């Protein structure tokens, strides 16, 4: 059987781009997301284009029981995952902490931290047993620094950075690789979700400069995974040329 890559948040953006590049390189895929229709459409296209096998998991990573039940339904031969890409994540709102919506905080913590942990807990034992595997966690520039009104989102991505470093240590005796990718501004559905469907406001985030694209981050994930076994890329901080950090951009004046 070909190697298996499991990708969360695979229905759009970075997750979909990762599915494309790993399928192109012959990996069978476990595609996980909440939007079954999008997963089904993506699965059919990738299967037809690359002749790979695909399992779909309609799952909300915030829901521990949903994660466990979907994992338990997988055929045994699919549970030995070679590459796990923890991509599912989101940001909600952009308010100072004294105006923050508590429900938004809960959703970010439940998805970005607990969801990553739930999925990892299912997959890692098989990697440990095989003494082989690679975990790619999708972090953010928000996990390396903070910016105004980013508060809880930044905190969750700092947690992803810390968990990645901890995974690296815990899995060191088992030859399981761990990489965290920290993108800057990537034009995906990220800002539409952050602004709760306000596409006009989301579009303004990327005006005046060329942001990263989902494929740029997928390329980085593939680069890390395709290194020789003795090479581990611990982390990458990936920015658009026009972005120095979370605050400073070189934008064309309108």
TrEMBL record:
Pfam families: adh_short. This is NADP-dependent 3-hydroxy acid dehydrogenase YdfG. Belongs to the short-chain dehydrogenases/reductases (SDR) family. InterPro entries: NAD(P)-bd_dom_sf, Sc_DH/Rdtase_CS, SDR_fam. PANTHER family: ALCOHOL DEHYDROGENASE (PTHR42901:SF1). The keyword Oxidoreductase applies. One of its GO terms (molecular function) is oxidoreductase activity, acting on the CH-OH group of donors, NAD or NADP as acceptor. SUPFAM superfamilies: NAD(P)-binding Rossmann-fold domains. It comes from the Bacteria. Keywords: Oxidoreductase. It comes from Albibacterium bauzanense.
């Amino acid at each position: 059987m070909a190697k298996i890559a499991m990708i969360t948040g695979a229905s759009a953006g970075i997750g979909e781009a990762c599915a494309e590049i790993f399928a192109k390189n012959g990996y069978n895929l476990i595609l996980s997301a909440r939007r079954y229709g999008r997963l089904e459409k993506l699965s059919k296209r990738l299967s037809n284009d690359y002749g790979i096998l695909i399992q779909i998991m309609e799952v909300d990573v915030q829901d521990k029981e949903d994660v466990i039940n979907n994992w338990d339904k997988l055929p045994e031969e699919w549970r030995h995952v070679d590459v796990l890409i923890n991509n599912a994540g989101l940001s909600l709102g952009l308010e100072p902490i004294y105006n923050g919506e508590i429900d938004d905080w809960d959703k970010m913590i439940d998805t970005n931290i607990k969801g990553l942990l739930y999925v990892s807990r299912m997959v890692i034992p098989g990697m440990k047993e095989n003494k082989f595997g690679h975990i790619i966690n999708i972090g953010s520039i928000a996990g390396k620094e903070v910016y105004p009104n980013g508060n809880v989102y930044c905190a969750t991505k700092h947690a992803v950075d810390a968990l990645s470093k901890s995974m690296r240590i815990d899995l060191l005796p088992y030859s399981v690789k761990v990489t965290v990718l920290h993108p800057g501004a990537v034009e995906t559905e990220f800002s539409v979700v952050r602004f709760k469907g306000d596409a006009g406001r989301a579009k303004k985030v990327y005006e005046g400069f060329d942001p990263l694209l989902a494929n740029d981050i997928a390329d980085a994930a593939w680069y890390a995974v395709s290194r020789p076994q003795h090479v581990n890329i611990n982390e990458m901080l990936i920015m658009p040329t026009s972005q120095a950090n979370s605050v400073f951009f070189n934008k064309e004046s309108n």
